[in-house]
Amino acid sequence: MANISKNIKRLRKQNNLTQDELAEKLFVTRQTVSGWENGRTQPALDILCDLAEALNCNPLDIINSKKPKMTREKFVALIFENEEKFFEVTDNILHSPYLCQIAIKNAILEAFSKMEELSADSFAESFTGMLEAECEKLKGVNICDDEQ
Asked: SS3 string of the chain?
């Protein structure tokens, strides 16, 4: 039951839907969706296909207990989806576009080497942690600014 609840929540968030929005699509209450996501209840079989359609997935994606595998394509997509956030994180620490690019490149290389260990669900948080560590390494580096 826990896997179904996690899958529903993960898929809902991937589709940028609130519980209210998903409930509206399925003609159920927000409390019903909340119950599914908290594992208190499970969606009935007759609503599973509608739920899958609302979440742009296959019904098996909802009931599957396996963690979604991180593929190269998903890895690259997640980097691009969060690109602005990652530049913001690095810029807040380094204040140099050049050093930000180096930090992001180094974090991408590290994350790619650990791709099998990373969960698509927590990728942004994991990668942000790697970025912050890279920024700390680069913090003391001085560069010449040619923009004068």
From this structure: CHHHHHHHHHHHHHCCCCHHHHHHHHCCCHHHHHHHHHCCCCCCHHHHHHHHHHCCCCHHHHHCCCCCCCCHHHHHHHHHHCHHHHHHHHHHHHCCHHHHHHHHHHHHHHHHHCHHHCCCCCHHHHHHHHHHHHHHHHCCCCCCCCCC
Indicate the angle between helix axes 123-138 and 83-94, nearest 10 degrees: 30
pLDDT value at position 2? 65
Backbone φ and ψ for 56, nearest 5 degrees, come out as 55, 50
Domain spanning 2-63: CATH 3.30.565.10: no
Please write the tens of the pLDDT for every residue from 14-50: 999 999 999 999 999 999 999 999 999 999 989 999 9
Type of residue at 4: I
Token pair for residue 70? 């991180």
Other Cβ atoms closer than 10 A to 124:
15
- Would you kindly state where each structural domain of the chain is located, as residue ranges? 2-63, 72-138
